[in-house]
Amino acid sequence: MKNLKQWSSFRAFSLLLAGFLLASALPLFGSGAKEKKESLVIRGAVYKGSSGFGAVRLLEDPPELGAGISVEFQVLPTPQEMVARVSSGEVDIAVFPTNLAAKLYNAGTGYRLGGVIGYGILHLLSSDTGIASWADLDGKTVYTVGKGATPDFLLRYFLSRSGVEKQVSIDYSITAAPQLAQALIGGKVEYGVLPEPFATLVSNKAPTVSSVIDFQQSWNDLYGGEEGRSYPITVVVLSSKLLDSHPEVARRFLDAYKASIEWVRANPDDAAALIEKFDIMPAAIAAPAIPNCNLVFLPAVESRPLVEDFLRVLLDFDPASIGGKLPDEGFYFQ
After folding, report:
1. Residues 116, 240: contact at Cβ < 8 Å?
2. Which of 93, 231, 249, 326 has the fewest CB within 10 Å, making it most exposed?
3. Domain limits at 186?
4. Mean pLDDT in the chain?
5. Residue 10 located in a structural domain
């Protein structure tokens, strides 16, 4: 009987101990599940062309932003595809022309400015050495790609400021920059507006064709810009969801983006190899143009005066191009 009582007591103690251990383990399992739930995948995108150059280091070696955080980047073919991804909320980080970023913000998409990643890269190219100013284009036909795009707005703006907008014919019949570059190289077009890297490509392929008017210098002549700064043509935007829920992660990402841009500028040949690897542009075209692509990183708040000067010009020409108004202060991530 005594042994039976001892056995019963031992059995009860064992059950109690097992229950205690199980209860103690539950928070551990719960913590693991919670940690898994809090893992974060940040999805970013750039599109083909010089606007994607500065991000190639991020594509090759995604930044470490913290425990449980991963970054996935993709290269999209066009800005229009990027608009679709942003409108559907499929990406957290995107690269856009400045006016398109403002337009999307004004439309309520919830994407805010993280920083300027590129200044102006536009040139008027010609073999006509008699062109030294916008006024010298009186009576000429100038080709540009994309009616209503940034190059078109700025071309008409500078012609208007010089008083010759009505005297210059603008031809939009060539719809892609590579084709316009070939037309200039082949002598089929005498005056054409092109961005980098195509401006450098044309000058290298056709030594008699050069940049006769630098849009960036024209802008600085009007606005008294600092040396090396001009109008901000390309920006990186981040979703408000990411900025509001993980602001420090967003800041670490922007620091990594800045470091990537600095690396690209310092290592154009290595960067060009990555640019080709990720199908952004052939290395042979990218490498000689990188020094001329005005890749920068200017934080959102610091960039606001430059951004607003640029957007005001577009607002005067076509309010719809930026969504009908200047973005409010909420556009600029702090």
Report:
1. no
2. 326
3. 122-223
4. 88
5. no
Nearest to 264 by CA among 86, 10, 101, 60: 60
Q: Is 148 left (phi over 0), alpha (psi -120 to 50) or beta?
A: left
**pLDDT classification of 38: cutoffs 50, 70, 90:** low
CATH number at residue 74: 3.40.190.10
pLDDT reported for residue 226: 64
Find out whether the peptide bond into 299 is cis, omega within 30 degrees of 0.
no
Question: Is-contact 314 219, C-beta < 8 A?
Answer: no
**Same domain membership, residue 189 and residue 56:** no
- Distance, CA of 56 to CA of 283 (rounded, Å): 12
Q: Give the rounded distance of the alpha carbon of 242 from its chain centre.
A: 17
For residue 332, give the DSSP letter.
Answer: B
Tell me what the mean pLDDT of segment 245-265 comes to. 97
Q: What is the pLDDT of residues 205-253, one digit of tens each?
A: 999 999 999 999 999 998 876 665 789 999 999 999 999 999 999 999 9
Q: Give the CA-trace dihedral at 141, 146, 148, 151, to 10 degrees.
A: -70
Last residue of a domain, one of 176, 194, 223: 223
Residues 114 and 243 in one domain: yes
- Sheet containing 169-171: which strands, arranged edge to edge? 169-171, 141-143, 191-195, 122-126, 210-214
3 state SS of 96: strand
Residue type, 150: T
Q: Which amino acid is at 1?
A: M
How many structural domains compose the chain? 2
Co-location of 240 and 289 in the same domain: yes
